[in-house]
Amino acid sequence: MNIDKRLVRKDSLEKLFDILKQNSKTIFAPVSKNGKISFKAADNFSAIVTDFVQTTQSSKDLAFPRTEKILDFSKSKEGISVKPFDYHSIPEMVIWGIRPCDAMGIGELGAIFNWDTRDEIYDSRLSHTTVFAFSCNKADESCFCTSVGGNPGNTEGSDILFTQMGDNGDYLAEILTEKGTAVAALATDLFLKTENQEKEKYLADVPVKFDHKAISVKLEKFFGSEKWVEQSLRCIGCGACAYVCPTCACFDIQDESHGKNGSRVRCWDSCGFSLFTLHTSGHNPREVQSQRWRQRIMHKFSYMPERLSVYGCTGCGRCSRACPVDMNILEHLISIKEVSI
Amino acid sequence: MMDNIYMPYLMKIEKVTYEAPGVKTFMLKFVNVEDQNNFSFKAGQFGEYSVYGAGESTFCIASSPTRKGYIECTFRQTGKVTTALSGCEEGSTIGFRGPYGNIFPIDEWKGKNILFIAGGIALPPMRCVIWNTLDLRDNFKDITIIYGARTVKDLVYKHELADWERRRDVKLITTVDPGGESPDWRGEIGFVPTIVEKAAPSSKNTIAVVCGPPVMIKYTFPVLAKLGFADDSIYTTLENRMKCGFGKCGRCNVGKVYVCKDGPVFTLAQLKQLPDEY
Question: With an 8 Å Cβ cutoff, are A82 and B5 in contact?
Fold first, then answer.
């Protein structure tokens, strides 16, 4: 569809928030707690924080919860009854205030969940979700969206993208999808006509540090490199990088039972963990941390582009910010770019 | 309405067979007739078997697709799920989802000799294709099975081994590791690669299917090469850890290849293209 560009006054955002609430949308927005910013159901507009480069957690868990039911089971004398998770019960929600890099990550996750067999649990959650992204007007040294195909005002994955323009703080709202149009139709008075449609000068400056396509080409011949050991020597395999990543989708399937009843759940996992690929015989194909680090980078920058036609990284920089031993993905990618093979 | 791809079929354990210490075979029938009617699979495919409350575990389907109306799985009690499975009795209900993965291309093997080489608990994934070829016996020339285990007790499918031994259209060689023999053992004594070398099966017009622990496979491939087998006439099945079965959970890949989607069946020629990470 054609992009519908509108002006939303700074003080209209709260009204928009209230109208969405009145239309029984659950709004997940950045909320600060104990110095960490993550997406929580926001009851009122004043709870939302806006003054940040990046949220601590990505919005991934709204479409791909860290623990999600697949089915319920109960045992009785008559036998076992099993009920699939009812994905029609997923409530309508709006993700409010995510960065364009997280919005781009939604599509990358979707590629993993749908590349062959369609995962209707993920799709269904997403179909109940409207994405309000806010362009970045500032960035930090961990940000590198422009090196992986994104940019601070990227519209990919958003239903409406808001960009704050100028000193008066009004927003340019780009209504990008039918879902976005439907939500905007609930508050047509707030989406005004505007001539001022150029957002570029208000966006953060994120210099390009490498070319992700060139990295992919190099990685095809990089499997046996000694760089992997060098880069991962200090990695403690904690998995923090995977848990904050908007596109890491590795999961485990486990049963949780309480007496005769229980659920089968899908829960987040990480290729960084030593038990991730451990066979029951004791054999482990990725025995040491350097192999697991290699898997993480190769999966995102080589296997995914080749198999799924998308990259597994949006340049959000969270893994570098979260790493307790200061493993910086941007530095490592640049050093891969620079090494000659 | 869309289907939940993680939803298992309910299966009734029709029969439990004790195979070897810690090893059992379950014959499973679909609880819902409709599920059974819609179900089909081919030799080499695998599934996720589950005990509700304990979780899921991955094994190949051990029965042949030529035997309709049921599937079988053979497993060794090792971890949480297999321990729970091992505690299940005839008549109880478990979960199964599948079939997943690619197949042994037995249609392409018509008119050829087939050589099966298996070690220990790796006979179950091969039993599916063995019975499949035996049930279509006229399609193939000589069928040879070389099977070894650590000890006589550890040999699985003892009744079927006896059956294959009696058959005139199958050549069966069984072996146990040195020290694993019993006083009345009449088979070979020695590691599988050594016994393959000794038996020296002809590579001419022959497909070799090799399945076993990594160390057995590692030493068997060079023996086959010496016997003149080409890399694309040697097949094996990889058994990486997996959770989903359809290329999403992220753990079974070897390089860009997903064992659950592109495998589990690979030729040696294909394996040689993969990075050494399996």
Answer: no
CA distance B120 to chain A (A): 12
Q: Which domain holds residue A175?
A: 4-202
Q: Is the pLDDT at B39 greater than 90, yes or no? A: yes
Residues of A with CB below 8 A from B244's CB? 251, 253
Q: Can you give the CATH number for the domain in which B95 is found?
A: 2.40.30.10
Residues A298 and A266 occupy one common structural domain:
yes
Who among A118, A224, A253 is closest to B244 (CB)?
A: A253
Mutation for A interface: B3, B4, B218, B258, most A CBs within 10 A: B4
Cβ distance B214 to A223 less than 8 Å, yes or no, reads no
In a domain, residue A207? The reply is no
HSE at residue B259, side-chain half, CA atoms within 13 A, is 28
Please count the structural domains in chain A: 2
In chain A, which residues have their Cβ closer than 8 Å to the Cβ of B78?
Answer: 280-281
Instruction: Report the C-alpha gap between B27 and B14 in whole angstroms.
Output: 5
Write out pLDDT tens, residues A266-306: 999 999 999 999 998 899 999 999 999 999 999 999 999 99
Place of tokens 């679909």: B30
d(CA A242, nearest CA chain B) in Å: 12
Does B85 share its domain with B122? no
Please state the domain count of chain B.
2
Same domain, B72 and B137: no
**Token pair belonging to B254:** 């070897």
Interface contact B5-A253, CB threshold 8 A: no
Question: What's the pTM?
Answer: 0.93
In terms of domains, do B63 and B113 share one? no
Structural domain span for residue B44? 9-100
Alpha-carbon distances, residue A227 vs A223, A272, A321, A341 (angstroms): 9, 17, 22, 11
Q: Is A219 on the interface with B (CB under 8 A)?
A: no
* B144-172 mean pLDDT: 97
* Closest alpha carbon within chain B to A291: B277
**Is B250 among the domain residues?**
no
- Write the CATH number for B230: 3.40.50.80
Give yes or no for A302 touching B (CB within 8 A).
yes
List all residues of chain A from 236 to 295 with a beta carbon under 8 Å from chain B: 249-255, 257, 262, 264, 266, 269, 271, 276-281, 283, 285-286, 291, 295
In a domain, residue B15? The reply is: yes
What's the confidence (pLDDT) of residue A109?
A: 95
Contact A176, A182 (CB under 8 A): no
Tell me the CB-side half-sphere exposure of residue B29, using CA atoms within 13 A: 11
Residue A86 forms contact with B (CB below 8 Å): no
Across the interface, of A73, A250, A286, the residue whose CB is closest to B249 is: A250
